[in-house]
């Protein structure tokens, strides 16, 4: 049609730019629309988004990419869960697993059946029935697809990846599908009389005009923030952390199949192991902890030798009020940031492009489409914000000024209502296209000490012996099954081994 987009300009590379380019080039492969990505090797990428959630692998599969090839090219390891240490109280551990916990019992949700069992004195823990948690805790792995008709089929998984290698891999994918990469730094942005972006001007004078501009310029938000002046919704009143220090270390043992999120005195520490190295970081609040203190804390706790110098990432939590403003769509950090506790940064990039494809504009960039895009994306951002605040707001820790400050935080009303509804009888408020399903909320609520006052009455229709018999039998059966599985390290070596990176080979030599 005459008004179709003829040219899309993506400003910025990294994970955001190249995921966007890969998706657009795949879905527009039979379209005459040109795609140009402008990036500069002089501008480093943040590079800490190395942990994913399961929908990320759906993206890889939807692009027709071999999972094995992807794992090998990005040094990836598997991720079954997030292991939370010291969050509710020091010394406590719980898992947030991927996949299902238990399964339907007749017509009843397993969680409600388990609540009845607990009310009747059963000694089990909720995660005893989550195959992903049991595997993660024992450093075991098996793809659920390889274990059909067993309890393992209820598990799900994501991956830990090298963010720089991810961008490199998807650049190759996108360029093979016609994306033009331009090396250069954007110096200026020209707008039309109606406020739409007309073109970007590079430092050397070259220009790139387009009909639609994708802002992947990171925290600078060069187009959406700086040029269009889109308002930023600041969430630092409920998410107190504002800095992170990251460092990469060589593995000294096989990687564990989970992301470690270990609460610290003034924030929390992550450990994300890949096949040969690990990403480590300390997310903290600068009001209570200096950069030097954070670095010293992190380096005193990491395992293995550092393979590059640590780097600092200052950040501000929140989002742009309009991610889609005029003819500009902000993707990734240019649109917003929620601290990385639940590994959602890469997912929000994928969601942002997915929604763009659903509400794909023409050259007029209809404001109605943009408004619906913004509404749907804001729901996603707010759901993640609430889920992360849940971890802090429900802590019992009061041993440092940081944790005491969280005792004074007023949570978003949407989260407060969700918690109250859950406390009544374990009911969860369902949204449209929710990112976090019931097992996620149930796992974190239970891990943080929030258990409903009662189970739903309908579960009483189950005969008395059925609940106890099911719980007595299921957990040991799952435990015995997991004991037969290969270790995570062995599974990687057998199915998708990645070559040792050159930097690590040199150190080993």
Describe this structure in words.
It is built from 16 helices and 21 strands. The protein is an alpha+beta fold. It has a domain at 7-50 and 162-235 and 317-382: FAD/NAD(P)-binding domain. Helix 1 runs parallel beside helix 6 (163-176), helix 1 packs parallel to helix 9 (345-358) and helix 9 (345-358) packs antiparallel against helix 10 (367-393).
How are the SSEs ordered, and which strands pair?
Elements lengths: L6 E5 L2 H14 L6 E6 L15 H8 L4 H7 L3 E3 L1 E5 L7 E5 L12 H10 L11 H7 L20 E3 L2 H14 L3 E4 L2 E6 L5 E6 L4 E3 L2 E4 L6 H6 L4 E3 L8 E8 L7 E7 L2 E7 L3 E8 L6 H11 L9 E4 L3 E3 L3 E2 L2 E3 L5 E2 L7 H14 L8 H27 L7 H6 L6 H13 L12 H10 L16 H20 L4 H8 L6 H7 L1
Parallel strand pairs: 1-2, 1-11, 2-7, 4-14, 11-20
Antiparallel strand pairs: 3-6, 4-5, 8-9, 9-10, 12-18, 13-16, 13-17, 14-15, 15-16, 18-21, 19-20
Helix pairs in contact: 1-6, 1-9, 9-10
Q: CATH superfamily membership of the domain at 7-50 and 162-235 and 317-382, which one? A: FAD/NAD(P)-binding domain
Question: Percent helix among the residues?
Answer: 25-40%
Number of helices: 16
| CATH T-level topology of the domain at 7-50 and 162-235 and 317-382 | FAD/NAD(P)-binding domain
Assign the CATH architecture of the domain at 7-50 and 162-235 and 317-382: 3-Layer(bba) Sandwich
Strand order of the largest sheet: 5-4-14-15-16-13-17
Task: Compute the CA-based radius of gyration.
Answer: 23 Å
In this structure, how is the largest beta sheet organized?
Answer: 7 strands, mixed
Text of the CATH class of the domain at 7-50 and 162-235 and 317-382: Alpha Beta
Coarse structural class: alpha+beta
Estimate the mean pLDDT confidence.
Answer: 95
Report the count of strand segments: 21
The geometry reads as globular
Task: Return residue spans where pLDDT drops below 50 for at least 5 consecutive residues.
Answer: none
**Share of β-strand residues:** 15-25%
- The N- and C-terminal alpha carbons lie at a distance of 60 Å
